[in-house]
Backbone:
């Protein structure tokens, strides 16, 4: 009875690993649909659909690393663990580097969100209109806290999965196998190169552990992480197959909105001929979760660095600064894509290499 009451209390005050994984799934949809098929087709050509299979073991390894990191300190804040493992000065420097990168990463996500709208549905509309509207909603979500954001992520994911399944079902009839073959051993290097783009999206998982003190069942990191990784593997491979299989890798590599272009090939009477607006709506929901989570985590990092306990008084001013940074993130789609290519490698570094390094140092020093 006492154990059940304790579990109910933790559920009310914290976030389960299941919610963390569902939030990860929700925030990865937009970047996956936005650029992964394009970059994968450019790098791996007809073998683009193999990218998630190549990256899958690395994501499992990440969850293994986090499981071991929190094994001795299940209730600790990840930033405190970093500081304990590397020392206060080095730990603060590492968190500061994470903060700088996440703010820039968040600015790119915000700019891609706005550019997507003004280049598809609302051409000619001032980009600042969409940014202000989105950031106001993000501010409201942040005031309610990460638990509320995670619950919204669950609802968003349900809509994403439902619509995704419908589109994939109708797109499957237009898939041409010749666009996905042949596959030979020579595709290994292109697939490995293209996996950097894949890894950069899945590497966002690390940011969800920067509020680890709010996650109450971290003993299930590996189990829930495996289930989430398997879902990501199948969903991402299906998405790439549907795009490359419909458009071909040449057209997919040249298309800034490959998923929309592939989905627009659907013709079922007059029902799904014009689905672009609905696809954008789905993307917006995923963008909202990503911007909310990244903004929350960025601010958490900042107040930890400054030694402040409560981040809520700084939410509005932080998002005002984010607004101007998003405007400076890139002047056009070409610059955004160039920044994104560089950012992919950085996100892989922070998402996979640094957590493994922290665990390795912690084991050597017998802290973890």
Residues:
């Amino acid at each position: 009875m006492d154990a059940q009451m304790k579990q109910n209390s933790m559920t009310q005050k914290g976030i389960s690993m299941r919610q963390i994984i569902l939030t990860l799934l929700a925030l990865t949809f937009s970047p996956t649909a936005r650029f992964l098929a394009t970059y994968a087709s450019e790098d791996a050509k007809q073998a683009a659909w193999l990218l998630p299979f190549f990256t899958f073991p690395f994501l499992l390894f990440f969850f293994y690393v986090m499981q071991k990191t929190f094994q001795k300190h299940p209730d600790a804040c990840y930033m405190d663990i970093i500081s304990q493992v590397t020392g206060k000065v080095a730990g603060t420097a590492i968190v500061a580097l994470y903060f700088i990168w996440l703010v820039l990463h968040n600015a790119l996500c915000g700019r891609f969100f706005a550019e997507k709208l003004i280049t598809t549905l609302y051409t000619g509309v001032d980009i600042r209109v969409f940014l202000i509207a989105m950031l106001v909603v993000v501010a409201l979500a942040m005031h309610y806290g990460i638990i509320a954001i995670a619950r919204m992520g669950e609802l968003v994911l349900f809509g994403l999965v439902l619509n995704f399944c419908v589109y994939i079902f109708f797109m499957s009839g237009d898939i041409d196998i010749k666009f996905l073959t042949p596959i030979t051993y020579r595709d290994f290097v292109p697939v490995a190169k293209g996996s950097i783009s894949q890894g950069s999206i899945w590497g966002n998982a690390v940011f969800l552990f920067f509020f680890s003190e709010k996650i109450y069942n971290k003993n299930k990191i590996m189990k829930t992480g495996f289930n989430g990784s398997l879902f990501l593997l199948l969903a991402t491979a299906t998405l790439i197959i549907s795009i490359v299989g419909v458009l071909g890798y040449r057209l997919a590599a040249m298309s800034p909105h490959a998923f929309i272009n592939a989905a627009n090939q659907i013709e079922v009477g007059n029902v799904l001929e014009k689905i672009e607006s609905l696809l954008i709506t789905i993307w917006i929901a995923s963008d909202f979760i990503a911007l909310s989570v990244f903004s929350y985590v960025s601010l958490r990092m900042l107040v930890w660095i400054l030694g402040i306990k409560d981040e809520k008084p700084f939410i509005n001013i932080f998002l005002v600064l984010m607004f101007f940074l998003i405007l400076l993130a890139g002047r056009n789609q070409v610059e955004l894509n160039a920044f994104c290519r560089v950012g992919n490698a950085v996100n892989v570094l922070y998402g996979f290499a640094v957590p493994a390094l922290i665990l390795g140092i912690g084991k050597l020093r017998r802290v973890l």
Remarks:
- Residues 156 and 259 are 19 Å apart (CA to CA).
